[in-house]
Amino acid sequence: MKKLTLIFLLIAISNINLLAQRPSSSYDKEKLEAARVAFITNRLDLKAEQAEKFWPVFNQFNEERGKLMHQLSAINRSSSEEMTEAKAREMIAQRMSLQQDLLDMEKLFMDEIVKIISPIQAVKLGGVNREFTRQVYRMQRGRDKND
């Protein structure tokens, strides 16, 4: 298992480095996702049987969450337009509804995911996912400074 973890880590590091070498306007989504899988699998120390069940649930959650976040972002972008009080109230209600949907989705996800991974791993998941994103951004900024 340690060899598998080491292989995942090496793949993640090489994929992140390859991403950092690409022009800023393009990136290889498959390599980014492979790096994310390897990074999260390694950091959470997922066993093979856990990973097999974890990734479909996690990917589905991320996809649904992304759709809601896109809708929320659209509402936030439209807030800079001229609007009436009634329109503003409607936007507030829409925003609150979407945020509640996000919270409900997160609760369901956590209920389902702790059946697959330990509660400790589940708690660490959000931080590990953000850590991966921060690393990619840092590498991107570093590359942009060197260009």
TrEMBL record:
Q: Which UniProt keywords apply?
A: Signal
Q: Does the keyword Signal apply?
A: yes
Q: Where is the signal peptide?
A: 1-20
What protein name is recorded for this chain?
A: LTXXQ motif family protein
List the source organism.
Aquiflexum balticum DSM 16537
Q: List the lineage, top down.
A: Bacteria, Pseudomonadati, Bacteroidota, Cytophagia, Cytophagales
